TrEMBL record:
Disordered, as annotated region: 234-258, 297-332, 629-670
Compositional bias per record (Pro residues), positions renumbered to this chain: 234-253, 658-670
Protein kinase domain mapped to chain residues: 358-629
Name of the protein described by the UniProt record: Inactive receptor kinase
Gene3D superfamilies to which the protein is assigned, alphabetical: Phosphorylase Kinase, domain 1, Ribonuclease Inhibitor, Transferase(Phosphotransferase) domain 1
Taxonomic source organism: Iris pallida
GO molecular function, one term: protein kinase activity
Length: 670
């Protein structure tokens, strides 16, 4: 088994699969073995690490070698009861190490300075030990680090500015230590996760970090500034009593004064508020007058649009599928005086049909059940209005169905907010999610500035969809009937991506229900029965997973000359030999994920089984996916199967962010 450096991605994958079998190779990383033995003999432990010194180090628990067994590339000893300091000149000698996990032990003392020699290190997990001392200075030289977790130790001192040297860092967890002083201005573009909560940090949070959530900074009593409450205005804080920890004071200021003072303060506040209100009122009046005049002037012209002018931002084409046909909505529904029925709390909206009709509308897309509009109400609220066509049920049935839908409450299911039924018009109102659909993000013009969906994000979306669908199936006992990428709406937090357009099938007659828009996702049996089932949802979900993995749309006619569908295309590629060419070329640039991709592929293939009975329940699929993620996150510690990544690279480099090693041959169809 030789490792010529420019291996094709196919060979790398093969290698990966063989690796598990061939782990016990004959060669031996002599120097690394000595270092490991030296480490384990000098470190007290609970005998859970039983390394047989006459066997190859590559067979030891927690140790992974490169394919040629000449170097140790990962060492994972989580929760094995290691006690005491990390002896110097042991682990620091494992120069090819990519992953080091010693988390959840009882290691104490400082991190040895020779860790600075682990220059290929990609992930370092030392959380939940008793380590102390300053932020380990040697770490700032480990420029390939992507995951650094020192949480839950006893580190102290200030956070060095040289953290910025770690330009590839994606997670930095420093919570639950005793770090003090201000947070340096950390400006690392790749940083996705930061946690410095529960330390003794003070001062204002640098602007570069203000987009992280509050919980990243919680528990530092003297931190202030976004996302925490603003810092007190810039004057020397008197720090009245040392007993009162200066919590980030609310804008009103520390009100620790006596009664007399309070009274006069209240008076002042009253006057100020009164004056402010008065001025606001005058300004408002002026604006109204101006607007009225403006409108009059416009009415003189050949007007493009009756009614109030919509806010200019409305016309932004954010989903890439608008064909701006405004006013269509209001034109038709006019004169209908029926009521809008809010369901399930209505999402806090308060508008009526009138408002909806006055809203400026823009076509978002035409789906199987009707046309969706983005409607911007006058007070600035934006909602999606779905106008159903060919509804085949009575008003009573419609209402019952809608009330039922309104009760469904799950963060991965787009909630129905309101509905409207009249003889000629049936409307549904949903939240508007500006981030667009999975379909537009995944297939929107590639290359041209479009944010790529990396593996983690695809996995998060897949899980979100699975959880939503699972809730629908198991808690609401409802068939979705229309699972497809354009019905997966994204939120900034991808874990909250939401399925839309569910359970509408029963409103329509069989003949009209599954239009050819869902073609690529439709289970074989549904083509005949036209009746979606729980199992046909699973099939569609499987197609969606394949779509995430391959980056191909299911109805892409390009998939072979006779236009075979996505599952069959994947089957045909995979049957011949396990090959990396099924995967999206965009994914091939992340080198650590093949094992996870193969596992997800297996789940997807199970979901698209031809026989409905051989498909898993969606909850089972979700469980298997969660296991993939957990394996990657806890056992492999968020590196995404690093056990496989590093060997595949022949020990020459590390880091997911590096440019693709082989030219991605994946997009060429066989
Ligand atoms: C250690 O490994 C050698 C060679 O593989 C084997 O003969 C021996 O039985 C092992 N010892 C223990 C305690 O497992
Ligand atoms: C790093 O390795 C070099 C070469 O083996 C060695 O001379 C040096 O002392 C090591 N650095 C530390 C901090 O131990
Ligand atoms: C960080 O990078 C700067 C510039 O590249 C360098 O001068 C400095 O020594 C580095 N700091 C550490 C701790 O490696
Ligand atoms: C943490 O470190 C401080 C000194 O920096 C020491 O006083 C304290 O006992 C340590 N706490 C633990 C739990 O080791
Ligand atoms: C932060 O705390 C240190 C002492 O730990 C103090 O010297 C410094 O002035 C404080 N900085 C701010 C901005 O409060
Ligand atoms: C940060 O860590 C704290 C304590 O472990 C946790 O409660 C919080 O959710 C974490 N925040 C983020 C953003 O990970």
């Amino acid at each position: 088994m030789t490792t010529s450096p420019p291996m094709s991605s196919r060979r790398r994958l093969l290698l990966l699969l063989l690796l598990a079998v061939l782990a016990a190779a004959s060669a031996e990383p002599v120097e690394d073995k000595a270092a490991l033995l030296s480490f384990i003999t000098q470190t007290r432990h609970l005998n859970r690490v039983q390394w047989n010194s006459s066997a190859s180090a590559c067979t030891w628990t927690g140790v992974t070698c490169d394919p040629s067994s000449t170097a140790v590339v990962s060492l994972r000893l989580p929760a094995v009861g290691l006690v005491g300091p990390i002896p110097p000149a042991t682990l620091g000698r494992l120069r090819s190490l990519r992953v080091l996990s010693l988390r959840s032990n009882a290691l104490s003392g400082p991190v040895p300075s020779d860790f600075s020699n682990l220059t290929l290190l990609y992930s370092l997990y030392l959380q939940n030990n008793l380590l102390s001392g300053p932020f380990p200075p040697g770490l700032a030289g480990l420029t390939r680090l992507s995951h650094l977790d020192l949480a839950g130790n006893n580190f102290s001192g200030s956070l060095p500015f040289s953290v910025n040297n770690l330009t590839r860092l994606s997670t930095l967890n420093l919570e639950r230590n005793s770090f003090s002083g201000p947070i340096p201005s950390i400006n690392i573009g790749t940083l996705k996760e930061l946690n410095v909560s529960y330390n003794n940090l003070n001062g204002s949070i640098p602007e570069t970090l203000s987009s992280f959530p509050q919980s990243s900074f919680a528990g530092n009593l003297q931190l202030c500034g976004a996302p925490l409450p603003p810092c007190p205005p810039f004057f020397p804080s008197p720090s009245p009593s040392p007993s009162a920890p200066t919590e980030p004071p609310p804008p009103a200021g520390p009100a620790s004064n006596k009664k007399k003072k309070k009274l006069s303060t209240a008076a002042i506040v009253g006057i100020v508020v009164g004056a402010f209100l008065l001025i606001s009122l005058i300004i408002l009046l002026c604006i109204c007058l101006l607007l009225a005049r403006e409108r009059k002037r416009k009415d003189g012209r050949p007007s493009t649009k009756p009614g109030p002018t919509p806010p200019p931002a409305v016309r932004s084409t954010d989903t890439g599928m608008t064909s701006s046909s405004k006013e269509e909505l209001s034109g038709v529904v006019e004169a209908e005086r029926n009521r809008l029925n809010f369901v399930g709390g209505g999402g806090g909206y308060s508008f009526d049909l009138e408002d909806l009709l006055r809203a400026s509308a823009e076509v978002l897309g035409k789906g199987s059940f009707g046309t969706s509009y983005k409607a911007v109400l006058e007070e600035g609220t934006t909602v999606v209005v779905k106008r159903l066509k060919d509804v085949a049920v009575s008003k009573r049935e419609f209402e019952v169905q809608m009330e039922e839908l309104g009760r469904i409450d799950h963060r991965n299911l787009l909630p129905l907010r309101a509905y409207y039924y009249s003889k000629d018009e049936k409307l549904l109102v949903f939240d508007y999610l500006p981030a667009g659909s999975l379909s537009s993000v995944l297939h929107g013009s590639r290359g041209s500035g479009r944010a790529q969906l990396d593996w983690d994000n695809r996995m998060r979306i897949a899980l979100a969809v699975g959880r939503g669908l699972s809730h629908l199936h198991n808690s609401a006992r409802t068939v979705h009937g229309n699972v497809k990428a354009s019905n997966v709406l994204l939120r900034p937090d991808l874990d909250s991506a939401a399925l839309s357009d569910y359970a509408l099938g029963p409103l329509f007659s069989f003949a009209s229900a599954p239009s050819n828009r869902t073609a690529g996702y439709r289970a074989p049996e549904v083509v005949e029965t036209r009746r979606p089932t729980l199992k046909s949802d699973v099939y569609s979900f499987g197609v969606l997973l394949l779509e995430l993995l391959t980056g191909k749309t299911p109805d892409q006619a390009l998939l072979g000359d006779e236009g075979i569908d996505l599952p069959r295309w994947v089957q045909s590629v995979v049957r011949e030999e396990w090959t990396a060419e099924v995967f999206d070329s965009e994914l091939m640039q992340y080198p650590n994920i093949e094992e996870e991709m193969v596992q997800l592929l297996q789940i997807a293939m199970a979901c698209v089984a031809t026989m409905p009975d051989s498909r898993p329940e969606v909850s089972e699929a979700v469980k298997m996916m969660e296991e993939i993620v957990n394996r990657a996150a806890s056992e492999s510690e968020g590196v995404g199967g690093a056990s496989s990544d590093d060997p595949s690279k022949g020990g020459t480099s590390g880091g997911r962010t590096r440019p693709p090693p082989p030219p991605p041959a994946a997009s060429s169809t066989p």
